[in-house]
Each structure stands twice: as structure tokens, then as C-alpha cells.
Amino acid sequence: MRDRDGTEDEPLFRPYAVTGGRAEPRYHLAMETLVSSVALKSNDYSLLSPEQESIMMLCRTVRSVAEISALLRVPLGVARVLIADMADEGLVRLHMPQLNQGQPDLNLLERVLSGLRRL
Amino acid sequence: MAGGFGVGKTTFVGAVSEILPLTTEAVMTDASAGIDDLGLTPNKTTTTVAMDFGRLSLDQDLILYLFGTPGQHRFWFMWDDLVRGAIGAVVLVDSRRLADCFPAIDYFEEAQLPFLVAMNGWEGQFLHSEEEVREALSLPPHVPVVRTDARSRDAVKSTLISLVEYVLTVRAAYGRTY
Fold it and tell me: Is residue A9 part of a domain?
């Protein structure tokens, strides 16, 4: 991981140690898939690994897979594995866009257009 | 967001993004075996491909992400996933270096993703007209060519609006497919 100034930047955790050496998630998460954390009882947090806890904190507001990867400074593939596992364990919810044959539907496009015009 | 190196892609994203543009990185290997067993095969080379992106909340439950293509087009396979579900693409061009955007145009035509060409002006100056750029890039008549300024929030916003309007027109004219 290198910053724009080219200096080495220590990631928050060792990428391939935390995924148990796996590089492929059980299912495919798009870069723009949105993730939100599920509310846990406070004592449940002690059962989380440090990286799971970081993701839970970040995703109190909805974040994309790409944002989680960037903010935790881990490669995209590692973020995908971690998030997919957390989704399986019911720690986070995934929100996929409504697609029509791989394209955003017309209603979504109209909403994006009016959203941009309001900016 | 695509375009040649140094044309202003990150500036363009940063002009409208509500967060400072972030960078996500993917680790690539030269073999298809995956990256599990790197330690066992010392001859394999790895490359880190970076991709910048920004975010725009358009409504309580609607977030628009703007992704920039990796600089080197041999890494554009990272985009194959993004094209699915994408609204469209902006090809940002510097009219003095038009050849830099040929790979982007070829890629989006091949992927059948609607795109527009945005000429980035410097200090409000445009050295070439829309028609000159259209001709030099051999663009079909339906592909919009617009003027923009990557540093200006209003100009970038208006470029994005043009893109979504164009995509809606394409959908109306050609049905669901481009």
C-alpha cells in the first residue's frame, strides 16, 4: 500500500492473515455493493475480530465495498472475503442495486437525474 | 470516468464528491491460479492496481459512486465488473492529446456502455471545437461531446446530468440495450 507521496503505509491489519489465506469470497460482491452493519448488543462486540469490529463501526452509515477497502487500507479482494463472511454470519446487510438485464432500471435513472439536478 | 494520464479524472471526481476521493487497490498476479499460493511460486509477479473513486448522496437511499479507470488500460478488466450496473461513462479528453482516450472509447463501445466525451478546458479555453473532436475520434453522431472544467463543481455536475439524460435517450430509442 502506498500513499500518493510514495511512502509505505502500514495497513490496519495483515491482509491475508485475516482471511485465513483465502482470496476468493464464497460469492461475488461488486465494488459498489452497499454494506450496513446490523445493531448488536454491546457484549456481542467482544466476540468480533478487530477487523470485523472496524467494518461494523464503518458501516453504521452505509458504505460500498470499495469504500471499506479504501478506508481500512486493505486490497479489494480481502475486503470482499471479510464482508461476504460477515454477511453469512448475519453481522452486515448487503444492498444490491435493482438491475434490469445488467442495467439500472429507468426509475433509478430518473431518480439519479433529479438528484443531480437538486445538488 | 476514463481518460488519459493526467487529464484530470481525479480532479473531476473530487469536484463533486462529498468525500475526498478514495483509492481502492486490487492485487493482481500474472497467473490465473489466484493469489492463495503466492509464497509457493516465487516466479509469479504481482501488481497493485489502484482505482480512485468518489461518492455523491443523491437521496436518503440513493448513492452515486464515480469510479476512475486505472491509468494503464491493460488493467481495465477491473472495470468488467463495474460496467455491469453502471449508468454510463464519461471520457475526459484533453484535445491536444486525443489519442490518449482511444482505448477508453474502444473499451466502452465493446462493453456497450453508453458514454459521452467531455473536453476538459484549461482556464475556460478550448483549443478545439466539439466538431473537430468528434471528427478526430470518429464518434458516431449520437455520442454527445460536451465542454467541461474538471475543477468546477457546476461544470462537472452539468456533465453528469448530460450523461444521464443521454442514457435515458438511448434507452428510449433503442429499448433496453444500447
Answer: no
